[in-house]
Design a protein that fits this description.
two-stranded antiparallel sheet; binds iron/sulfur cluster; alpha+beta; 299 residues
Length: 299
């Protein structure tokens, strides 16, 4: 068991991972944990007087799969999507660099660039946070438990009339399915694990977040936001000479963006936490051991 896992077992740590904070409510979160079997009352209707209000001034952290889906929809490279539609930010719960959706207006409180009178113009490819809304996703590590536990919470903003409609009850699990969340989580899970671990480590005062090198931050940002750059990194550097990846998977990675992202998350877990999610080739490992011994002055 690693130092990280030992510390985590001794603490109960809760981290909100995906939550669309709008700017006008200080604390709209209802402090009740919801499981997939719980129900909540909500419906979003075109005729509501609050129509589109939630798409103004929204603080939306884009997940890797959000950026992939939106770039594909617009038929642009991830790098061009980033320049046009995002602002770089630090996800301060973990001191990790992320991309946020750029709202219009000089103060960033204007409309989302994808909002139209009729609603969301990228609805089929809208970000995970928009799909969850008005739910948020959090992860908790209970004292003594080995695995993390995920749960949901309700975000009730004063402007949103969707909570006041009688009879509009949903199970959380049904809402997730209706909103098409599963394919997003299937790709993003490794990335969410990294955010959770880094945020949890920061909570207990561990070294990550302060000691993480600028180079590692840069690599995390690349893995999180730019699948084209990640592909160049895998195929045009010594990456494939250094790590054990079978030939069939290598061929698949040339075309399969989702598989490439998952490899990127596995690699970051290995770099950040020394997780055995990806293995160095034996020769590279031996060379690293020899070098480490030399650096320490051990024969
Ligand atoms: S992506 Fe769509 S749903 Fe999300 S804030 Fe923008 S317009 Fe609203
Ligand atoms: S009901 Fe809530 S989610 Fe729907 S448009 Fe109004 S503010 Fe947005």
């Amino acid at each position: 068991m690693s130092d990280f896992e030992r510390i985590m077992l001794e603490k109960e740590i809760e981290v909100d991972i995906l939550e669309a904070n709008r700017l006008e409510d200080e604390n709209p979160v209802t402090p009740v944990r919801l499981t997939p079997e719980d129900s909540f009352c909500f419906v979003c209707r075109r005729e509501s007087s609050c129509w589109n209000k939630c798409c103004h001034g929204a603080d939306i952290t884009l997940t890797p799969y959000d950026i992939l889906r939106l770039s594909r929809r617009m038929n642009v490279r991830s790098a061009d999507f980033l320049i046009q539609f995002t602002v770089p930010a630090i996800w301060d719960k973990a001191d990790l660099p992320v991309a946020k959706l750029r709202m219009t207006g000089e103060d960033g409180k204007g409309a989302c660039p994808f909002m139209t009178e009729e609603g969301c113009s990228v609805y089929e490819d809208r970000p995970a946070t928009c799909r969850y809304y008005p739910l948020g996703l959090a992860s908790v590590k209970m004292k003594g438990a080995e695995d993390k536990d995920e749960f949901y919470f309700l975000v009730k903003e004063t402007h949103c009339e969707g909570h006041n409609v009688e009879g509009a009850d949903h199970l959380v699990s049904e809402f997730r399915t209706d909103q098409g969340i599963d394919p997003y989580e299937a790709v993003n899970q490794g990335w969410i694990d990294i955010l959770m671990k880094m945020a949890s480590w920061k909570t207990v005062g561990g070294p990550f977040g302060q000691d993480i090198s600028a180079q590692t931050q840069k690599m995390f940002f690349m893995v999180s936001t730019d699948v084209d750059a990640l592909r160049r990194f895998v195929f045009e550097t010594k990456f494939l000479q250094s790590y054990e990846i079978n030939e069939e998977s290598v061929e698949n990675l040339r075309e399969d963006d989702e598989a490439l992202l998952k490899l990127g998350f596995d690699w970051m877990k290995h770099v950040l936490f020394d997780d055995p999610t990806i293995n160095l080739k034996e020769r590279v490992l031996q060379e690293a051991i020899v070098k480490a011994r030399q650096d320490m002055g051990v024969a």
